[in-house]
Design goal:
seven-stranded mixed beta sheet; alpha/beta; Rossmann fold; 16 strands; 2 domains; single chain
């Protein structure tokens, strides 16, 4: 009842603001006078009335209450309230957060009727939000104006996201000031992870419906975007995208409020994207609980010996660090398997690092597309031709990284393409003899088999492999916690493959 009353009041405020005509300013510096600002829609879809079946405690009685021993009442009782899924963030200005008052409510209604999933929503200020993701799994913030969080709010959102919560920002009708603000704020909250556009093979676009192509209203094309690919930006931490920014309006589509001039998704695809967001966030939240209980191995501080195996992870301008403890776990298992002393600390190395050539092995990974500069490419080539080795993997088997890595290798070794490594090579026989290995559920569904011979590709120079590449994910297996959406190998297979690659690198 309180939610309905709050939304109804918000609608009145928005309607009153729209009636003022072209004046959409709500505070100084709100971005309403900037290029790319799009005001809230003039067509407001009212939320539905409250349900007829309400409990006695919620009934509004316009006269004194009944006596202590009331007569039996025949009004219908409301069934137990479904769990909260979305919490819509309310701000001081209704014209900002409530321009599409029936968005989340209608999405949840469609989910219940379409796929049989019943969840509730709440409307709260950020100060009222509990930081426990179990109590509000998805926070939804929509708007058209510039905004910023306080340091305390940023700290709260960081804690919430790293504990398994998901934050979704809807750029109202594609309004640029809000979009820029969302990107800036997420970068401040999670500075260790880049804000980047999610490629169309991201699980969000396939979690329930396959939506690597979508339908937009004509306003999107008029704004300069000519593609039919969905556009979500995001921040990914430990293979889980914790914040999503929709570049074009999605909430107006959840309301099924259509207008050809809108910079927004058409309603049918907007609703499907909403269901995908639900499916992805729910699966990843459950998995996040598991990944919180991982091991990390560290070196004894006093041990500064130089006869221990160590290697570096390449730092580049993108999502270069996908799993934070997998390498140390792999090195521990390698030490147990071979008794070769190791350093668990992995050096985070720029390709310009003067000590790069001290490392026998470099590791490169990521999810999304990336590009290295000409000087970085030249340094990598020099490193590989002077005795170094590169081990790369497409984390979670993602196509964006795969395509970029193949392009990179064509620049590093234009006359030596990546080729399959034969199964009789030492990379498949020492110290582990590797045949078929188990697959993650996602890869098993794709290959229609629960096991397969692992795929490794390489480039040779000087009679041995200087590049070894896995197009399928390994790091999640090293941590004994593959993402539910990962295209990769199971834990045992991932560890065996990783151990063989390290042994090959230190014995060549």
């Amino acid at each position: 009842m309180a939610r309905i009353s709050r939304l109804a009041g918000c609608v009145l405020l928005v309607l009153a603001a729209c009636a003022r005509g072209g004046d959409y300013t709500i505070f100084p510096g709100d971005g309403s006078d900037e290029p790319g600002f799009v005001p809230p829609p003039r067509k407001i879809k009212l939320p539905p009335p409250p349900p007829r079946t309400v409990s006695s405690a919620e009934t509004t009685i316009p006269f004194p209450p009944p006596p202590v021993a009331p007569l039996a009442r025949t009004e219908a009782k409301k069934p137990p309230r479904p769990p909260v899924l979305f919490t819509k963030i309310r701000t001081r200005h209704a014209l900002d957060w409530c321009a599409t008052p029936n968005d989340v409510n209608n999405l949840l209604t469609k989910m219940k009727s379409g796929i049989g999933i019943d969840y509730a929503m709440e409307v709260k200020t950020l100060a009222e939000v509990d930081p426990d993701p179990e109590k509000n799994p998805i926070l939804f913030r929509s708007g058209h104006y510039r905004f910023s969080f306080t340091p305390e709010e940023r700290a709260k959102l960081r804690h919430y996201m790293l504990d398994g919560g998901t934050v979704i920002f809807d750029t109202g009708l594609g309004s640029t000031p809000f979009y820029e603000s969302a990107r800036k704020e997420i970068a401040l909250i999670l500075p260790e992870a880049p804000v980047q556009r999610l490629s169309t093979d991201h699980p969000i676009f396939h979690a329930y419906y396959d939506l690597d192509r979508v339908r937009y209203h004509q306003g999107v094309g008029k704004a300069g975007y000519r593609s039919d690919e969905p556009w979500f930006d995001g921040v990914t931490v430990e293979c889980r995208t914790v914040a999503v920014i929709s570049r074009w309006g999605i909430a107006v589509g959840w309301e099924e409020n259509e207008d050809d001039n809108y910079q927004a998704y058409e309603s049918q695809d907007a609703l499907k994207l909403g269901i995908n967001l639900f499916a992805y966030a729910t699966a990843q939240r459950a998995w996040a609980k598991q990944t919180a209980k991982r091991m990390r191995f560290t070196d004894v501080e006093a041990d500064r010996s130089t006869d221990r195996v160590s290697f570096g992870q390449i730092v580049y301008g993108g999502e270069w660090k996908t799993r934070h403890v997998g390498l140390s776990v792999l090195l521990h298992t390698f030490n147990e398997k071979t008794q070769v002393p190791v350093k668990y600390a992995v050096r985070e190395a720029q390709l310009s690092d003067p000590k790069l050539f001290d490392l026998p092995l470099l590791y490169l990974t990521g999810h999304e597309t990336f590009v290295l500069g000409e000087e970085e490419i030249a340094r990598l080539r020099k490193y590989l031709l002077n005795g170094g080795m590169l081990f790369a993997e497409a984390c979670c088997g993602r196509k964006g990284f795969d395509a970029s890595f193949r392009d990179l290798m064509k620049k590093v070794f234009p006359d030596s393409p990546l080729r399959p490594i034969p199964p009789e090579h030492a990379l498949f026989t020492m110290p582990n003899k590797i045949g078929d290995v188990g697959l993650t559920a996602a890869l098993a569904a794709q290959l229609k088999s629960t096991t397969a011979r692992p795929t490794l590709q390489g480039i040779e120079a000087g009679g041995h492999y200087v590049v070894v590449y896995s197009p399928y994910g390994l790091a999640g297996g090293w941590e004994m916690s593959q993402s539910p959406y990962a295209l990769g190998y199971d834990e045992a297979g991932s560890v065996q493959i990783g151990q063989n690659i390290i042994l090959y690198a230190v014995t060549q």
